[in-house]
Design goal:
Length: 345
Amino acid sequence: MVQIEQLAARTPAVSVDELLQGFYPSPRFGQVSFASYRPDPKQPSQAAAVRALQGFADGVGSANGGGLFKKLFGKKDESRAGIYLDGGFGVGKTHLLASLWHASPGPKAFGTFVEYTNLVGALSFRKTVDALSSYKLVCIDEFELDDPGDTVLMSRLMRELADAGVKLAATSNTLPGSLGDGRFAAVDFQREIQVLADQFDVIRIDGEDFRHRGLPAAPAPLKNSELSSHMKAEFDGKTVAQDEFSTLIHHLAGVHPSRYRQLIDGIDGVVWRNVDTITEQAVALRFVVLADRLYDKDVPILASGVPFDKLFTEEMMTGGYMKKYFRAVSRLTALAREGQNHEPS
């Protein structure tokens, strides 16, 4: 028997303490390590990235700010505070970032870019700096600047944490000097962008999306009449969130993205009826966050309607946020495969 709920009926509340306590890798990356990462032998940059991160992990916690005396009279540390993993979606950047987190001493934090900006919104900038400046390592996954305010905010945050002796590590699909391109008038914020870039040594990771290496094409969407039988076959004895896609999209507008992790808490699978192409940018960007949280928790998907490669408009898939949308399609496709592992009897 399947326990059925609706995401559109959930309105989670998250305290500041819960936000702070949630900065660790998701269950999907809860047990990963450098040893469990499998570099593609055709892509030597992948093995090189592992070696670089292992060396970086060895230095985490070995030297901190040292107080005012060291800042005034100590020998200047010429090394950069952070390491930045640049590469396409699906090459294992998050796996490696989480491996670094696991291999490093604490206190430490691991979160997505949007989770850090949400933390600042909840705590205030100064309290966020105070909370994180005692950490040995801060890991920022999916580093992307979507607006000028985020550019200034993260530039200041990274600079102050680096000055406090915190080691930084980030992943992104965009080189740090190119953050913001195509999204806003990045040329007007070159100083802030350059401050960000100056904090990191860049490690390039080449390769194809591992979620599709040697795997079949994404499964075709189901018919509405097939959803029930497939749901019973795939999720027997589990809890499933079943929603009309348009209703879910409307509901997400009233739930802050910082709460999407709690929104899907306790959900073993999702079923969406009548998936349709999203045509508004703000709606699409919210949905990308939900896709990321579903992928983090490895929540299988069953869906009817348009296939996931038609979820965003062609204009979106070629615009300033195209890498976000490609990542979302890639992850949703992987979860759709998982959702059709069992055929109805």
